[in-house]
Amino acid sequence: MEDFAIKETTPNIPAMNGSMLPGTALDIVEQMDFLFVKVFNARGFIAYDGPYIANPQVVVNPYVVVKVGRYKVATKYLKPSLDRAETFAFKEEQINSDEEVEILLKDGAAITVGKVSLLISDAIQRDSVGTSYAPRWYALKDRNNRNTNMEVNLTYWRGTQADAEFACSWHSDSAVDACCIPFTRSRHYHSPILFYLRVSVNEAVLRGNNGNGAKIYVKATLGDVAKKTKVSNMANPKWDEIILFVVAEPIDGSLVLTVKEQPNGERSVIIGRCTIPLENVQKREDDTPIVSDWYNLVGPEGMVGKLHMGISFEGGYHVFDESIHYSSDFRPTTNSGIPSIGVLHLGILNAAGLRVMKLMENRTDAYCVAKYGSRWVRTRTILDSVAPQWNEQFSWPVYELYTVLCIAVFDNCHLHGGPEALHQQIGKIRIRLSTLEVNRVYTFSYPLAVTQYSKVKKMGEIQLAVRLSSSTSLINRLRTYSQPLLPKMQCSSTLSEFKLDKLKNEAASLIELSLTRDEPPLRKEVISYMLDVGVETWSLQKAIANYDRVRMVVIGFLDWFENIRNWRFTMIFVYANLLLAILFPNMLLPFIFLVLIAAWLLRYRKRPRLPPDMHIKLTGIVINSRYDQLRVIGRMQTALGELATLGERVESLLSWRDGLATSVFFVVFVFLCVAACCITYAIGCRWFMIFLMVLLVVRRPIHRIISISYLKDFLDRMPISYLKNFLDRMPTRTDSMF
């Protein structure tokens, strides 16, 4: 049986052994040694880009070839009047230190016109990434080892991946043709800024409409997305509906509103249309009222009426491009002034045991993509290796602890399958930041798996190093637990899960459109996999998984009762309580509260030290795919999911999965238990129960009404309760689902 457990590792990284890569902050990746060769130019000949000329002083289309061991790489065509520096990085474990660096000057016919050999052992060890070594002119000899007037300008040294030249250099472990080099390099991407465009369609006044039962509706079109209102049968139709679109900066284009009539059994007829440039639409950051206006409707014969609407860009909302359970950001679009509470550091070390993805060529060309917030990063592609070593480090500012870092591994099919070949998925993992201890370095090997043919298939393992550094005080981190998870506008005007899912897919489409235009592009299938595009909200798979989650929560409490029946360790406290109830009734409740404190401290000793494993059973993959799109059980699925989430969050308070949150709750719980223990010991259990019965049950009706009104006013003044904000940040088993 395949092992999907997460394993702790001990990599040789500076953060663990106290060392540091020279002059850098790369402290959670292993050091990789490279030999760098930087070629600037050549001289002593006449460069010519025309047809071949039999003249030793004229070199047609000259270029330099750098040869180290079994690796050979060529520069672009040289021009003596222009320095066009190119850097090449050769991994030292793939070459021998007693070998030579051969520099060959060739012409367009691949004929060597000059060469020079340099000893690798003479290369200078670079002691700092800021150190710059001046290039030297090296004299070239011809094929007969005779001196020539030609020289090549270059420098070479030994360094690590922390070197400033590393990012833009050619790498020996990613050796491809020159045209494919950009598709193998490390790259950073940024998602565009997204807004919700709110269109409040109120009513219309139409000329010549006698109210003869015509079915009239409004169709709103923005780019390739079209949405429509319900049908109105009134003479002056009213809708009072809100239509939401997702728009990306830079904002351009126009919103087209079309009023249509739908006769019975016939095609819709256009009554009128109005076009609104998006650059004229107002932006709002809070819940200030939207300014509504009347817009002229223009038909084939001129103006046919007016349409009453309110249109605005909602800067106070967060536009979700991921599932809300796996979101990496909750800030509103206009997030100016929100300070960060820490920095997330990710070290992508290596992978092991990857499956062969290209069966015809019997090879795997793997690279990683990580996303947090609006920033994406991609590692370089390691060619033809099932155990690639990346050792690249990235960092992101953190604004909310209840967020998820997503890392996925792909096979680069662009190099051998052409631009149209799809990059294959190798696996994806998620790490929730609230489960990480501050300033602790987590080094684990995570399983990579995908679902294929109704089964979970392990594709290999990836080794990561993660550290969460705090840039603020403990009080400020605790304050985030009392604040609403979503922006204020999103709390006061919530969107349904079904509508959020549709808007999420619209946002993902705009991100795909933006990032696929970058050079080199981030592939569409990569973005879709990272953002879970196409994973429907309504599916029988999720209903079965949510049912299993509820069952696991219930089983957790049933196991405790079963331990009592089987005379396990827990039964000692239960029978001690029964004995106290008989002999010392006044000590029953105080003893119960003290036992609760002791049980919680016992859980602290057994608190989880490892991240949550992938739970295979929760995937619900045993269900046939033809049932995936059933929406009959949609309401049951949502209810099951919410019930399971609530139970798992309460469990998280006791399991110390989120250490900071559980510590706060533990302090409050101990205080309440000690207070209850003292009160019940002082007045006795009998009088305490009588007091609660009088307070809650047999009060005068007028007092009950006054208490309820005071409670309602208190809740009205608090838009979101502190307890709900606290529970919303507790980790659940959704982190362990594929």
UniProtKB/TrEMBL annotation:
* Main localization category: membrane
One cellular component term (GO) for this entry is: membrane
Alphabetical keyword list: Calcium, Membrane, Repeat, Transmembrane, Transmembrane helix
Q: Where are the transmembrane segments?
A: 572-602, 659-683
Tell me the InterPro entries matching this sequence.
Answer: C2_dom (IPR000008), C2_domain_sf (IPR035892), C2D_MCTP_PRT_plant (IPR047255), MCTP_C (IPR013583), QUIRKY-like (IPR047259)
Which locations, inside or outside the cell, does it occupy?
Membrane
**C2 domain span:** 177-295, 324-446
Report the membrane topology from the UniProt record.
Multi-pass membrane protein
Statement: the UniProt record of this protein carries the keyword Transmembrane helix = yes
Stated family: Belongs to the MCTP family.
This one is known as C2 domain-containing protein
